[in-house]
């Protein structure tokens, strides 16, 4: 089981984030502590907030009094509501929050059900509950609960959890934003890539693509990223989602930083030579493009080929899932460049495969078209997003962050009036 502890100052926004899950029938209130049960009417943010107010008023000097905790069992674990209540109570007791008011929400909007707990670290006397050993205490509590409730141990089942994280986006499953978040939360930090084109080639393995856009903020031009869900051919099939919805890690600034780190790491990586020989062997023993791809895929190597409207190859990228490295063909020399493969398969009679994006300087620039959505629409959606583009969300609660921003805007408007 994985526990994430978010620390913030906006209790109203945190409660709203969770309560809207309930209101939209994507969650339920499982348990409350030091907050009365409601039987004759639905729960509300206002109802919950009033029981936290005495603690917030008593606050001496804690800047971030709100705690937003998520407990995430392994995707294969099946936990019923009774166990979730007991797990939440025991976890809060172990963490020193047993005498605090808190609300336990169960989220059901994605395949992996999990719980969120909202509380405050400020006691009625105004003093803060120490968080100096939060990580250590949380790890110990999770290990105890795993044994007690026969849950999978996170360390031993890391691969199964990663498989869930990197599950390709399926448009028909709905909740595209949550699916994109699952991919973008960890995938960019797991693989190494040396260009935005290589990054997009990697994203294509999970039915995702990104596009650079620009906008004006306080009189200055800023750049950022928007993400789309795609079909298996790379065609955009969803509206654009600005990167700030997924946290700082998915933003352009962080991706460019990862590219620079990757260039240093991959410069002398010994797996490059092995990969090159593997590709050359597959080239020499494959009679078609499809056979070539299949042979490499059997060895954990994905191939992304980009062609123009006439079917000519202008870019090829190899994704080695074993070493977690992404390489453009030209980085191995002319013999594995796009031109070489174009000549090799020039006489193929297969129908040209097209993609809606291009790859770095070698592969031209991003297409400015957005398939179903015009460039103007993208820029309208992107307007004003830079306030949150570089905001950090280390605990994965991107939607909560949106609510906080909305609440602050409303407060500023009220002050102006």
From TrEMBL:
| Superkingdom classification of source | Bacteria
User: Where in the numbering of this chain does the MobA/VirD2-like nuclease domain appear?
Assistant: 50-151
Record field: transmembrane:
none
The record ties this protein, via Pfam families, to:
Relaxase
Comp. bias regions, Basic residues: 408-417
Residues in the signal sequence: none
Residues covered by region (Disordered)? 397-417
Under the heading InterPro entries, the entry gives: Endonuclease_MobA/VirD2
What is the official name of this protein in its record?
A: Relaxase/Mobilisation nuclease domain-containing protein
- Annotated organism of origin: Chryseobacterium rhizoplanae
